[in-house]
Structures are given as C-alpha cells and as structure tokens.
Amino acid sequence: MNPIVLTRHKDTLVEYPAAFDGEVNDNSNLTSLVGSIVGQHKVCGGRLEIGSTSEIWNAIICRSCYLRVVFPKEVDTYGKLREWFAMMIKIKDPEVRGETIDH
Ligand SMILES: [Zn+2]
C-alpha cells in the first residue's frame, strides 16, 4: 500500500506487515480494525491503532509518540482515509475541518 500522509507535519501511516494476514490496500476495511493496529508511524516507528472516540469520530493514535488524528466514522477504508487527510491538510482552520464543532 502507498503511504498515507496524515498531517501537515508529514506524519505518515505505512503498512505494518506483522499485523495483517496479507497486504492491505486502499479498499481494505478500517472499521473491522477498531481496537487494533492499522499501520506504523513512519520515521517514529510506533504502532498506529484505531479507536472509536465518539458517536461520529474515530481516531488513529500512535502508541509511541501519542500522535492522535481524528476522522469521521464514514471514512471506513484506507483509500477514504487517504482522501480525507489529503483534504484536511489543505484546510488550515480547525473550525472548518469540523474538529471544534460540538456534534
Ligand atoms: Zn509516532
């Protein structure tokens, strides 16, 4: 799988082969992985885990450096994750990104 850039600071998710039976690709489902490892934090080397953090949002958390990024639950594949963060990186205002809106 191609790496997925998560933040403007170039935090990047790369495949974590030991965690999967076979490769992941952009069509691979994320929802079924809630509570488990979804990849590795490039450069940092930490495990990236996915968690359900509210009714609407999930988060990817690095178990090494504590990076935490949120995304809507409807973003349920690696491909949608790539598209979501590519879009979010272009939007600099957290309010426009929806992160400060009280759902
Ligand atoms: Zn990390």
Descriptive notes:
17% of the residues lie in helices and 26% in strands. It starts with a strand and ends in a 6-residue tail after the last helix. A hairpin with a 6-residue loop joins β1 (4-5) and β2. It contains two helices and six strands. It has a six-stranded antiparallel sheet with strand order 1-2-3-4-5-6. With 103 residues, it is an alpha+beta fold. Bound molecules: zinc ion.
Summarize this entry quickly.
By secondary structure, the chain is of the alpha+beta class. It is 17% helix and 26% strand.
Secondary-structure blueprint of this entry?
Blueprint: E1 4-5, E2 12-14, E3 37-41, E4 47-52, E5 57-62, E6 68-72, H1 78-90, H2 94-97
Antiparallel strand pairs: 1-2, 2-3, 3-4, 4-5, 5-6
The structure holds zinc ion.
Helical segment count? 2
Unreliable stretches covering 5 or more consecutive residues: none
Mean pLDDT: 89
Which ions and ligands are bound to the chains?
zinc ion
Alpha carbon gyration radius: 13 Å
Order of helices and strands: EEEEEEHH
Strand order of the largest sheet: 1-2-3-4-5-6
What distance lies between the first and last C-alpha atoms, to the nearest angstrom? 33 Å
Shape: globular
Tell me the helix content: 10-25%
Structure keywords:
103 residues, alpha+beta, 6-stranded antiparallel beta sheet, 26% strand, binds zinc ion
